[in-house]
Every structure is written in structure tokens, then in C-alpha cells.
């Protein structure tokens, strides 16, 4: 027995000596002792061979010792590969350009995962996150890496089903598959997760789990689980089991946010079982449209530190929890339907909660009442308070300025009145102050900013505040964002802005001052900005070169001011510029062509309503990023340059109301992304090309009005199924209306195909909204905010002939149809009443005959109708709609009945129009006699009798008069609009 004891002691002594020996070698020169296993080195080389590595991140994977390779961590004694970390950096928060996006993509690994990975039998840690595996499936063989304790494939852009073989990794402590796929990641069931009994961290966010109705039961079986994240998974909350099945013993973080599985009939409320998770420190249920009230059982969450119930449909009142949830640091309840005053909310949180609460988020909650009558002063630990978009009224309490820990205060979009308390100037930790869209008034002085040395963002727009600062005042802060639109900035441009070296966002638009001159130094100062808005003010002066130095793009809105002189040159970093509605003059050649070899980032160019002149230069090929061009209402002349055809990304082109000439440019057929084309009110001529219908298939708006186009309307236009507005009025078009116009499928939709206006966004702050001049209900008006609802066709004032195609009546979504002042013959289609969405219908000044179809009496939305000066006969159909119009809608026909006459005679004929027709020649319009020389009787009767007996002359003459009247009206309207 003693011998056995001696042998055991000797064994342990030798073992200890061996360990000490190894440790001495390890501490002396680790690299000289540790060397990777050859089979594992070969496995890694096979892995490298199958990976796509555009930035050569794996350049170090050469040589014999793989333990020195980048991303490889070996065991310090055995040399086995223990960790393989090939994660890429996360994407930048803002990708400013295509080039920047491409540069980021080159940092990502791709390709496929080699099965040789299975030879790393001692691998504990595998991280392939933030890469781009191009939609390949997650390899099933990963489930054979039995030693894995950590697996992270998040944001790796795999695709398809998450393999259940991962359930074989019974040693896993961490499994992170959040956003693991591009679009189609899913799991039919998650029973395999129940095998991972050692799991402490599980994140399946963005994996489709709506088929996994047992998700709570499965995750509940993991006794060691501390963190569970299942956001954006389409989970069913109605399937959560009863309370006695909840036995999470370690769960501290539960994120079930943004799940939208609502094929169920009953919109769920907060599951009662969640109130029993007494060890929870973090609970996130935001964005699930949960209904009902918050149960008083919420007081059982005694360990809770962060509670997020925002963006649901919760209502009622917040239960009093101020004395129970003593560890609560953050509460997010925004975006619900509370029926409480702000005082009641704060009262329910008073107690130990108010002593430690740091974040109070009640954004957009229908809260009311007065904040100055609440106990806000008791919340001494508050660092962030968000009460935006409520109906809170009264003064902003001065006591809020005494909560010295405040870093962010958002009181915007409420009904606060009075002025901003000077006590806010003592908030030494304040970084963001948001008080926009209130009824604040009074003066803001230097005292309001006395000790705000950390202030970074000040958004105070849409108030009636006045800035009263010394011209030599130097702010104690360095702002990054400033928005003061609708303020009174004082008698001169704010000089203190010059000291703000980090300002990137500046909005001082719609100011209430008159005639402020922008100093020249400001345009150099603007080099640091990413957004500049001085629009809708009375700023004056000339603008020099707008430079841009930095890594981010610049968006500029200087519209609706009094800037003058030539256009400023801009740097290549400007992505959007709006200089419309100013007094800029001269050519734009220097603006467009001054840097012929430099490609520009500009996406939106708006120069409408200025005094710019000369020809459009032919150097558009360097502006390849342009999506929007608006040069309307200037004095440009000459042809549309062919280089515009190089703008293959162009969505919107507006050249209306200039003096452009020539034919429709052939090069525009390359602009296949065009959605809106407005070249009306110019001197363009030639035929309308058929390739518009075969090449520009995304067109929604075509306006060619007031030009000199001739020929037929091409049948190829019928391929434009998305077309919602077609205006070719006041041209010289002839021939028949194509029967295939019924192929305009958007015009045939009675539902709102596009809601409100349609716009194009670019950058982070600006958007371009389409606007268009349309004649509807007999009036010319500009449409923008509701343009998306407009479906209109205007073919008026041409030489179109033939019948009105009955197929057009299938365009039941049209709200305006104008075929007036043409040579159309035949009857009005009987099915016209099917166009029930019509608000405006004009068939006047044609050669139409027959009776008015009875179906027109059912067009209940019709508010403008003009059938005058045709050959229509018979009785006007009875109904509340047609009788609501005046006689002018029907004059110049052989019609009877209300509103022309009380009734028709018994024989069915028409009554004589004594008040309408002249007894001698059938003509009594005042404008007819204006054209005749008073006293020249012979000439008068000669013309009169010629018009009576020659039908063609008669219609031609009245068309001429109507053309002249309409053109004079439009010209006057345009001149008045320019003047205003």
C-alpha cells in the first residue's frame, strides 16, 4: 500500500514538473514553442482557398506556423486552433456615395465555407459575422463542430433555412444568428434549440419564425439562458403558454421587439406570463401593436432596469409603480394611446423610481395637461426626457432647468407657450435641446446659454422667438446642429455662427427679418456643413463659389430668396442644390462646364423661376448622378442638348416655360429611368416619337403642352402602363385618338395608386417633390402635394379627328378628361357614366352629335362639365348632377331641359334659344363683335353670312377665338405667378 502511495506521489511530482517546464518555455518565447498542427494548417489553407478576399485580409496566412496568422488563436500549450475570428467591421452608419459603398464591400469576405473546417476539432470559437457570403446556404456541417462554444454568423448574408444541425452543438454558450441572411432567412421549427442546454446567449433576430408557434416553450427549456433576442421574427404572442409554464431561472435580457405576426384574429395584449419574470433587467416589447392596458402586475418586475413598451397600441393609464420598481433606470412608452395628463404620469412614477430614473420617453402619447404643474423637479437623476408630439401646454417650468444631470431635453411639437426659462443656461451637461413647433415667444439672450458648454444640438424652429445677442458674443458651445427657422434673428446676419467650427446641420429658413445680406465669409464657413437651408426668407446678396471640404456630401436649399447675379460654382461634393425662385441671371455654362474632367456627385438640380438665359450647354455627361433637373420658368433658348441623354439615372426633367426650340431630342431615349417629363410651354416642334412608349416604360407624367408638335399620337404610347398624367394640349396634333389608350392601367384604377405627392429623396434631409401645371375645372393650377392622386388626360386644342373611342371609358380612375377644341365627331360614348371618378370633363368646341348619354347623370363626383358648342341634340338627362351646372355648360347645341329651359316640348323637339342665339345670324358673343370694326356694316354681314352657311369656317373661327382666349388667360396667369 505504501508503494502505491509513493508511486502516486511520484506521478504527480513528475506531472507538476512537466507543467512548470512547459510554462517556463511559454513565458520565455511563446512563438518558439507553440506551433500549429499541420492538419489544422492545411484545413485553414483550404478554407482560405474557397473564400473571396477582395481586400487581401488573409495575406498573413502563409508560412508554417498558422498560430501567427491573422484571426487565428491557438491553445498556448497544445497548439490546437481554438478561435477563428474572421468578422468584418460593421457597415458605416451613413453611406454617402456608391464609391464609398463599393469601398466597404471590398473589406468583406465572401465565397463559401469549406468543409475542411471540420478538421479543426478543438475549435471553441467561430466568428464569421459582418461578411457577405452572397446568399449561400448556412453549411449544415457546422453542426459537426462538436467543441464549439461560441458561434456568430450574424449579418453574414447567407440565405435560406437555418439548419437544424446546429442543435448538435451541445457545448454552445453563445449562438448569434441575428440578421444572418439577406432576405429569406427562416426556421420551420426551433425544437433543435432545446438541445443546447448550456446556452447563455441566443439571438435569432430577423430570422422568420412565424411557423415556430412553440418558440416560448422551446426557449423556456434553456435553464442557463441569460440573454434572449428575437426581434423582427414575426412571432405570435397569442401562443405564449400560461403562467405556470414559465420557468426561466436566469433570464435577464428579453428582446421581443418589432414582431408583426397578425394573421390572428385577436390582436394580442401583453402576455401576463411576462410579468412574472422577476429577474428580468431588460424587457423590450416595442413595435408589436400590443393592445389593452398595462396590468398592475408590472410591479412584479422588481429587477427591471430598462422597460420598452413603445410603438404599440396600449391605452389607459400607467399603473402607479413609483414605490415598487426601484431599480428602473429607463422607461420607454412612446407611440401609444395613453389617456393621461403629464402630471398623472409623473405622479405614478414618484417614489424610489423618481430618485433613480434616468430616461423618460413618452414621445407621441396623446398626453395633455401642464408640465409646470407637475412634479418634474423630483426627478433629480434624469439625463434624458422625451415628451415630443403630445398636447402638453403651459409654460416650460423653470424647475426643469435645475435638474443638473439633464443631457437631452425634447419638448418639441407640443403647445408650450411663454418663453424659454433662463435657468436652462445652467444645464452644464446639456447636449441636445429640442423645442421646435411650439408657441414659444419672447427674447432669447446670452443668459439662456451661459453655462451650456456641452450643447451640441439646438432645434428650436417654428416658434415666435427673437434672438437678442451682442454682435461680439462668443458662444460657450460648439454646435453640430442648429435649426431656428421662423425666428427673428436680429437686425443682421448672426455673426456668432462664424465661431461654430463643428456645425454640420444649419437651418435658418423662413426667418421673420427683412432684407438681410448674407456676408461673404459665410460661404467659406459653409465648407464644414452637410446640410444648409436658408430658404423662404429675404436673404440678399451674391453667392461666390460654394466649396466643400470633408468626407460627407452637402445638401443646399437657398430657394425663395432675393439672391442675384450669376450662379455660383459648386464643388463635386454637393449632392443637392435648390436655387429656385431667386433673381439669378446670365448663362449656366460656367456652372455646368467649368470642370470638364471632374465627375460631380450632384443628384438634384433645381434652378426654376429665375432669370437665367442663353442656350443649355452640352456638357451634361459629367453629371451622371443626376436624378432631378428642374430648369422651368427661365429664359433658356436653343435646342435641348443631346448630352442630356447620358443621364441614365434621370428620374425627373422639367424644362417648362422657356424658349427652347428644335425637335424632341432623340438622345432622351437613353434615360430609361425617367418618371416625369415636363417640356411644355416652349417652341418645340416635330412629331412625338414612338420610342417614348418602348423605351421610357416608367413614365408617370408627360406634359408637352403649348408647343408646336404635329402628326399623330403614336400608338406606342399605350405601352406606358404606369402613366397617370398625359398633357399634349395646345399643339398641332392630328389624326385619331388611339383606341389602345385604355392600356393606361394606372388611369383605369379607381383606388389611390399613389398617395399624396410623389417625391425623390437624396442625402439625409432633402427631397424633391414633383409639381406640374395642369388645367382642370377650367383653371390652370400647379399641383404638388396631391399630385400622386391626380390622373388626368388633356388632348385639347389640337386637330384631332374621328370618334371618341369607347375604350377610353374604361379609364375609370381618371379625375380629369379634356378633349375640347378639336375636330371630334360622332356621339359621346354611352359608357361615359362608368368614369365615375371624373371631377372635370370638357368636350366643348368639337363636332359631336347625338344625345347626351343617360349614364352621365350618375357621375356623382363631376364638378366641372363643358359640352358647349357641339351639335348635341335632345333633352339633357335628368338627375341631380347635370342639373347642378349652369347653362354655359351646354350652350351652342340643340339641347333642351334644365338648366337651359324648364322643359322640352311635347313633340320631343328643342325650344328656341331666344337668349342665346342672335335672331339674324345666330351669333351674339361679345368677343365676336370686338373683332369687327364698328361701322363697317358690309364687312360684318359678309362674314356673318359666310359663317352661317359654311360649317367648317364657323368652327374654325370659333376655335381660333377660343384658342386666343385660353392662351391669353394662361400667359396672364404665368406672368402674375412670376410677379408674385
Our measurement of the CA-to-CA distance between the termini, rounded to an integer number of angstroms, reads: 114 Å
Helix content: 10-25%
Which shape, going by the Cα principal axes? globular
Instruction: Give the biggest beta sheet.
Output: 31 strands, mixed
Overall number of strands: 58
Number of helices: 13
Strand content: 15-25%
Report on this structure.
- The chain is an alpha/beta fold.
- It contains 13 helices and 58 strands.
- Mean pLDDT is 85; it is low at 1-32 and 906-980.
- A hairpin with a 3-residue loop joins strand 46 and strand 47.
- The protein has a 31-stranded mixed sheet, with no helix packed on it. A 15-stranded parallel sheet has the order 27-29-31-33-35-37-39-41-43-45-51-53-55-57-58, with no helix packed on it. A 4-stranded parallel sheet has the order 18-20-22-24, with no helix packed on it.
- It is globular and about 105 Å long.
- Among the domains are: 574-896, Ribonuclease Inhibitor (Leucine-rich repeat, LRR (right-handed beta-alpha superhelix), Alpha-Beta Horseshoe); 926-979.
- Helix 12 (937-949) packs across helix 13.
- The termini are far apart.
- It is found in: Cell membrane.
- This is Leucine-rich repeat-containing N-terminal plant-type domain-containing protein.
- It comes from Rhamnella rubrinervis.
